[in-house]
Amino acid sequence: MYGTPVPAITPLFVLGVRRSGTTLLRVILDRHSQLAIPDESYFIPQLAERHRGRLDVDSFCDDLSRLRTLIDWDVPIGEVRSRLGDGATVADGIDAIYLTYAERHGKQRWGDKTPMYMQELPLLAKLFPHARFVHIVRDGRDASTSFLNMPAGVVTETWVHPRSAAGFACEWRTQVRAARRLGRRVGNRYTEVRYEQLATDPEGVLAHVCEFAGIAFEPAMLEYAGSFDVTSKPHLTGLRRPPTPGLRDWRTEAEPQSVEEFEQIAGDELAACGYELADAAHAAGPTPRARLTLASYAGRLAAWRATARAVARSPLWRRRHPPLQAAA
User: Going edge to edge, which strands form the sheet with 132-137?
Assistant: First the structure.
């Protein structure tokens, strides 16, 4: 169905807007005997900005010594270094990090699930030209309801994040459209699944994802309930149970005004994804006022990303990230 066999070194990126089921899909896929998908990484854009052309291995490993993520993943920098030869690129260096993690868990393949990378899709495609992308889409009104009801203090990411249904609609519409553009660009290296289908037919959806990824479906992947520690992540308590439909329902949980605000901005993309609108008129596209809101969101996001790139390239990055472990 998806053409030639998938090489063993091909990474699998799980894409999706926040609160769209990306963690659920990651946890399930990570239980596969061949595939390792750790928790969010965040470091790919930073390393890509800091290391261009031929890789300076010493400088690269020094940067790795400053990343908390490698400590959390129990990835020794020395093992990463041993994989890097002459002529290595930053993509090789990033690949070495994930392969080290995967092999320490007895796996051959690696993947990633970091919702922030929905802003970095062209970069991922450039770094990993053979990567495969599975995009999980959830009704944005349910995702918005879930996000805006998360416990205080849970949202710690440093990028622009929404505080209203309209703000979340900007993020959802922008990122879903970006992922679908990526799909048109990479062809059969992209597939799209629905969170709602994963909840109602997990075996069917996972069989499709596994075929897409070039691995055999393993029923044990669905036996994750109770194996995931959510003590420090109260917003992920749903992982204590099997895939369950209706954990959030905007029809009964969202205020009518919030639904209206969301559809004014993202109604066209909801309709394009096959979701029924509360007001069919919103399928025509954002209202003039909504277009201004989208433009404001795009401007703030562009400013944040430009600042993040500038910091990553400057000496300030290392001052902000002191060494946490030995680089050798």
Answer: 35-36, 109-112, 12-15, 132-137, 190-194
The model's pTM: 0.91
The rounded distance, in Å, linking the Cα atoms of 124 and 117 is 8
Burial 254-279 (b: 16+ CB within 10 A, else e): beeebbbbbbbbbbbbbbebebebbe
Domain boundaries, the chain: 12-320
Q: What tokens appear for 281 in the block?
A: 């008129």
For the record, the structure tokens of 296 come out as 């404001």
- The per-residue pLDDT for range 285-320, each reduced to its tens digit, is 999 999 999 999 999 999 999 999 999 999 999 999
Strand partners, 125: none
Cα atoms in the 13 Å half-sphere on the side-chain side of 288:
0
> Is CATH 3.10.560.10 correct for 12-320?
no
H/E segment holding residue 161: none
